Amino acid sequence: MDRQHLLNQYATDMAGVTQHIQNAVEHQRASGATDAYPELNGLLDQIISTLKGQNTALEAYNEGTEGGGVLEAAKEAFLGVLGEAAGLIDRLRNTDQVSRMVRDDYTALSLAAVSYHMLHTTALGLKDQKLADLALTHLGQITPLLVKLSKTVCTVVAHELNSEDRIIDGSVADQAIENTQKMWSPDHTNQ
Questions:
Q1: Residue in 77, 98, 87 with CA at minimum distance from that of residue 24
Q2: Domains held by the chain: number
Q3: Three-state SS string across the chain, please?
Q4: Residue 70's domain spans which residues?
Q5: Which of 50, 58, 115, 126 is most buried, by the most CB atoms less than 10 A from its CB?
C-alpha cells in the first residue's frame, strides 16, 4: 500500500468517527431530553458544528489527493451500516437520562481525541505536514469540548438526583466541578 493511500485511509476513518459522533449528538439534541438544560443544548450545538467542520476538512483533504474520493464513497457505505447499529443500540437502551448522554458524548469525544493523536503521529511519520497540522488543529478543537462536558456532567447529575429526591443538597454541582477540575491541573497531571 502506498503512502498516500494509507494517509487517505486514515483520514477517511477519522471522518467516519467524527460523522458517527455527530449523528449521535444530533439524535440526542433532537430527542427533547436535553430541553431542560439550555447550557447543555448550546454545548451540543457546538459539538455538532465542530464535528461537521472537521468532517468537511477531512473530506476536503481526501478530495485533494489522488484516490481520496474513492475512499469517501466507501466511508458513506460504512456509515450507513454503523448508523443502523447505533440506532438499534439506542432503541435497546431505552433511556433518556441526560447524564448518560453526556457521559456517552464525553466517551465518544475522548475516542476522537485519541484518534487525532494517532492520526497526527502517523501523518508526521509519513511526512504529510498538512494532515499532521489538520489532526492537531482538530484535537485542539475537541479538548475544550471535553473540558466543558466534564463540567456539565456534574451539573446534570446533581440536577437529576435532586429532581428524583435522591440527594439532599442539589447544589453540590459547583463543588463537584471545582473538585474534579483540580484533577486536570498541570500540578496533578504532571506527577
A1: 87
A2: 1
A3: CCHHHHHHHHHHHHHHHHHHHHHHHHHHHHHCCCCCCHHHHHHHHHHHHHHHHHHHHHHHHHHCCCCHHHHHHHHHHHHHHHHHHHHHHHHHHCCCCHHHHHHHHHHHHHHHHHHHHHHHHHHHHCCCHHHHHHHHHHHHHHHHHHHHHHHHHHHHHHHHHHHCCCCCCCCHHHHHHHHHHHCCCHHHHCC
A4: 3-189
A5: 58
Q: What is the pLDDT of residues 128-170, one digit of tens each?
A: 999 999 999 999 999 999 999 999 999 999 988 888 777 667 7
Residue 75: φ, ψ to 5°: -60, -40
C-alpha cell at 35: 430541553
- For residue 151 the three cell numbers come to 463540567
Q: What angle do CA 39, 45, 48 make, to 5 degrees?
A: 145
Cβ(40)–Cβ(156) under 8 Å?
A: yes
Q: How far apart are CA 83 and CA 89, in angstroms?
A: 10
The number of residues making up the chain comes to: 191
pLDDT tens, residue by residue, 59-76:
999 988 876 664 555 555
Residue found by looking up cell 432503541 in the block: 91
